[in-house]
């Protein structure tokens, strides 16, 4: 495996980077769960429910990696992510009293962007795993592949919802 550790500066930057990704993972997990529970058609809700579980698992994997590396969790960053996710629910998308079809489409687009960011984060972390024996390159590769699969699944759902939304 490699020599454990990076430079102190690298460790500090990695801690910031992973805490930023943890905040994004927190927002993504909450948003996916909210979308899965929203008043949408059953097949879409079922698909998103599976994604929400996967995204929550990925968040837990990230926290485990951070603990392995001795990186403290910065709760204030995840708190800001929770507040941002809650604020995002206030956007009416042209309707005040009921859910707009645009809401589902836009939430799927946001979810895909978040998943693509997560995949990039795993790819970046792979370079650390190649040098640091505390991390498994195979685990990081698995997480990267899982994120790429999630992005593909969300894109399929997004295309379907876009077609249905704009055909109505």
Topology:
Elements: H1 8-37, H2 42-68, H3 75-88, H4 101-131, H5 137-167
Helix pairs in contact: 1-2, 1-3, 1-4, 2-5, 4-5
Task: Offer a quick outline of the entry.
This protein is mainly α and 168 residues long. The protein has helices at residues 8-37, 42-68, 75-88, 101-131, 137-167.
Write structural notes for this entry.
The structure is a single chain. The chain has 168 residues and is mainly alpha-helical. It has one domain (8-167): Ferritin, core subunit, four-helix bundle (Ferritin, Up-down Bundle). The protein has helices at residues 8-37, 42-68, 75-88, 101-131, 137-167. Helix 1 runs parallel beside helix 3 and helix 4 (101-131) runs antiparallel to helix 5. The longest helix is centred in the last third of the chain and has 31 residues, at 101-131. It is elongated and about 55 Å long. The mean pLDDT is 86.
Instruction: Could you tell me the CATH topology label.
Output: Ferritin
List SSEs in N-to-C order.
HHHHH
Average pLDDT confidence is: 86
Extract low-pLDDT stretches: none
Quaternary class: single chain
Indicate the structural class.
mainly alpha
**Structurally, how many domains make up the residues?**
1
Helix content: over 70%
What are its keywords?
Ferritin, mainly alpha, single chain, 5 helices, 168 residues
